[in-house]
Design brief:
By secondary structure, the protein is an alpha+beta fold. The chain has one domain (2-182): YaeB-like fold. The protein is built from four helices and nine strands. It has helices at residues 25-37, 112-116, 146-153, 166-176, and strands at 2-4, 41-43, 49-53, 66-68, 75-80, 89-94, 102-111, 127-136, 179-182. The chain starts with a strand and ends in an 8-residue tail after the last strand.
């Protein structure tokens, strides 16, 4: 069974994260469970983390928050925290640009024992939906953000123990030098 972790519930319109205004978190978790059972997934950055491929028929139901950076892109940098117990970090977002269409979507699932390491489980189910990641058309894979990698590798609060190769670090930095999250539209849900 795949349950919904409370952390993913922040991924709504206006959050600057991938979201769906057509599917509930419970429907997305059910889809993840079906796709996991049909082997439509790949291993994540460590044992107990998997990336489930959303069926191509559902990809249009997800909004990708990323823009391609060009010479006209303007940015805003803020010092923020995701949660109270975490260290603040610098979040850089684009102030302009057109959100890219999603070419595919991956659902990040963490196994119960991995979440329990830091008491971040929301349920007792074997798997929990942690994140929804839309990947722009033409991009093969979405690298984890360098701040998330740092939080994991240094085992900071809010991180889940992980170790990354120099190639993974370089791919992450290179990707995030070319793409940015667009400052979210604060208009009400459609």
């Amino acid at each position: 069974m795949v349950a919904v972790n409370e952390f993913v519930r922040r991924q709504v319109k206006g959050s600057g994260k991938t979201y769906s205004s057509k599917l509930s978190f419970e429907e997305i978790a059910l889809h993840a469970e079906e796709r996991l059972g049909d082997n439509h997934f790949r291993q994540g950055y460590r044992d107990g983390v998997v990336l489930v491929e959303v069926s191509p028929t559902l990809v249009p139901h997800f909004i990708c928050p990323l823009v391609k950076i060009d010479e006209n892109t303007k940015f805003i940098t803020e010092r923020v925290k995701r949660r109270e117990e975490e260290k603040p970090y610098l979040r850089i977002r684009a102030l302009n640009g057109t959100p890219l269409p999603a070419g595919k979507v991956e659902l990040v699932l963490y196994r119960h024992d991995v979440l329990k390491e830091n008491n971040e489980h929301s349920t007792t189910e074997k798997w929990e939906l942690i994140s929804i990641n839309a990947i722009p058309e033409g991009v093969d894979a979405l690298p984890m953000g360098p701040v998330t990698m740092m939080r994991n590798q240094l085992e900071f609060p809010g991180g889940t123990k992980g170790h990354y190769s120099s190639e993974q670090w370089a791919e992450s930095v290179e990707f995030w030098q070319n793409y940015a999250v667009l400052v979210p539209d604060k208009s009400p849900e459609e």
